[in-house]
Amino acid sequence: MRRSLIKILENKGITDKKVLKAINTIPRHYFFDNALLGHAYQDKAFPIGEGQTISQPYTVAFQSEKLEISPNDKVLEIGTGSGYQACVLVEMGANVYTIEYNKVLYERTRKFLPKMGYTPKFFCGDGSKGLPRYAPYDKIIVTAGAPTVPTSLIKQLNINGILIIPVGDSSKQKMLKITKVDEKKLKKEEFDYFSFVPLLGDEGWG
Length: 206
Ligand code: SAM
Description:
- The strands form 2 sheets. Strands 5-4-3-6-7-8-9 form a 7-stranded mixed sheet.
- The chain is an alpha/beta fold.
- It contains 6 helices and 9 strands.
- The chain has a single domain, classed as 3-Layer(aba) Sandwich (Rossmann fold).
- Helix 1 (about 1-10) runs antiparallel to helix 2 (about 15-25), helix 2 (about 15-25) runs antiparallel to helix 3 (about 55-65) and helix 2 crosses helix 4 (about 85-90).
- S-adenosylmethionine binds near residues 81 and 127.
């Protein structure tokens, strides 16, 4: 089932071998209750409780590919959720810091991922302001829909660092890739529309 998911992702245009290998390695069904196992390898987002979702595999693959991960990149993920995206980044060789706003999800995922052998660094708090204590980061990925690009996240990027973030309204958001060329210059690329749950907090929807 995992191999057929990989075929679906390739057919949708994902080419990064590291991304495909990571998705082919991680047992996504571990993130689902027994009664819902049949949904684990469909290319769909799925509820994980607390009104939140595990992102669609294509979305995870798309964002991961656009991050252009090199081994040991220091990556900040905003919106830990189920932890699946964090596992993909760890499998790709990144040094992952992940922050979740919802305390229940934070506690659940912080306990669950190490049981699968994945140990990103977990934080609970408002990630719309980034995680300044450990900045700067080589890459930042936002996995919730933002109203605008938070300035704190740009500040916390290294030169040549990449931020991938969906920006828009509550129904759909355009995927943006922002490269910090130097302290004053940003390169902005725009991709397709996606649909995420809202980024809450001070530099999100509040
Ligand atoms: N990356 C997740 C995964 O692999 O399962 C999917 C994330 S889900 C689409 C979005 C997550 O962002 C939710 O868990 C939500 O609680 C979290 N979130 C929303 N606003 C946040 C904020 N300001 N800081 C940190 N997390 C936030």
